[in-house]
Amino acid sequence: MKTPFIERVSGAADFKLPASMSREIGRIIVHWAYFEQCVQQMNWQTLDITPAAGRLALREPRVENRLEMLHDLVKLREGEWDDKLYRSILTRTKLATAKRDLIAHGLWAKRDEGWYVELTRGVWPKNLRQLVTGSRKVTTQLIPMDTDKLREATNEIASLIEDLGKLRESALAKPGPSPHIHR
């Protein structure tokens, strides 16, 4: 493991990234929006409401909260699905959210060693807390970034989308009463 070093950096952010990096950032943003929409559609479907009604009635919290809501709705409706797959999707979503947010909201900078994105949120890792005092908002962190890392994030989100489809297919609703039988 590399020994971390802390260096105070100041300078202008850059927005003129190489085309390959810009392309992957765009893919990440589009893939993520699609993933969020798929989760929200599953919520609407579970509630048996139209997309228009869903957009009006349901707020759009962070995608992890939407997944938890979906889980609760499936259980409320006495449905069943692959719980192991659900937990895997939820765990991976939390990790992918952090990457997507960094890539989408971070400031980009070119240094001699390559491209970096500036992390200004969260808490310092335990191994650095003794070396850095204060908030990341004050002392930010530069995360090295390249096209391969961006492509890896895109692939992780694509895998989430694929697994969400498998989760949807695994869902079985408890059969309701037959419309021909009066109770």
Please tell me about this protein's structure.
There is one protein chain. With 183 residues, the protein is mainly α. The chain has a domain at 19-104 and 147-170. The protein is built from 6 helices and 3 strands, in the order H-H-H-H-E-E-H-E-H. It has helices at residues 19-47, 51-57, 63-76, 83-105, 126-129, 147-170; strands at residues 107-111, 114-119, 141-145. Strand 1 (107-111) and strand 2 form a beta hairpin. Helix 1 packs parallel to helix 3 (63-76). The longest helix has 29 residues, at 19-47. The radius of gyration is 21 Å and the shape is elongated.
Descriptive keywords:
6 helices; 183 residues; mainly alpha; single chain
Number of helices: 6
Question: What is the count of β-strands?
Answer: 3
- SSE string: HHHHEEHEH
N→C terminal distance: 67 Å
- Given helix and strand content, the structural type is mainly alpha
Oligomer description: single chain
Question: Mind summarizing the main beta sheet?
Answer: 3 strands, antiparallel
Helix content: 55-70%
Tell me the strand percentage band: 5-15%
Mean pLDDT over all positions: 85
Global Rg:
21 Å
Spatial sequence of strands, sheet with the most strands: 1-2-3
Molecular shape = elongated
Are there runs of 5+ residues with pLDDT below 50, and where?
Answer: none
SSE blueprint and pairings:
Elements: H1 19-47, H2 51-57, H3 63-76, H4 83-105, E1 107-111, E2 114-119, H5 126-129, E3 141-145, H6 147-170
Antiparallel strand pairs: 1-2, 2-3
